[in-house]
Amino acid sequence: MDDEEARTRLLDAAEELFYRHGIQAVGMDRIRTASGVPLKRLYRLFPAKESLVTAYLERRDRHWLTSLRTAALTPAEPRARVLAVFDWLADWFTEPDFRGCAFLNAYGELGAAAPEVVRVHKAELHALLADLSPDADPTLADRLLILTEGATTVATLAPGPEPAHRAREIAELLLAK
């Protein structure tokens, strides 16, 4: 196994374990066992748990935002693009392994010690919502971010598409103004 394969296996294991059980509840030995990567190589690639947590969140940020961006940019009409965000959320909320927002979960566990990627992710999400907003309305983007985050939080407690559907209804009202 080369370093790239080892890195991928470690990040796959970290993502599954950190997202399912929490960052603080999962030790490096558990990551090593789940990945099949020797401990020595794990620490060579990720010298501290913090570096693995950051890499996991950075990779999740790229995948999550790419998927959302693709779904939101598929419709041609700006209003439909905004509403596509909530349709995408509804699909995400019904995934069997859905455990809420990995970035808010990380911040909830680590507080101010959370990696900077947590704040960067939220800024990127806000920027995407601003880009989708008709006339690039920053106030609308702020409101859409609150709807997105609120729906995600509610779905964390009661998984299913309903929080996204309710948030979509509110977004429709905001877009009608």
UniProtKB/TrEMBL annotation:
What the entry lists under InterPro entries is as follows:
Homeodomain-like_sf, HTH_TetR, Tet_transcr_reg_TetR-rel_C_sf
Q: Which UniProt keywords apply?
A: DNA-binding, Transcription, Transcription regulation
Domain named HTH tetR-type is located at 4-64
What is the recorded name of this protein?
TetR/AcrR family transcriptional regulator
Determine if Disulfide bond is one of this entry's keywords.
no
Pfam families recorded = TetR_N (PF00440)
Organism encoding this protein: Streptomyces virginiae
Keyword check for Secreted = no
DNA-binding region at which residues?
27-46
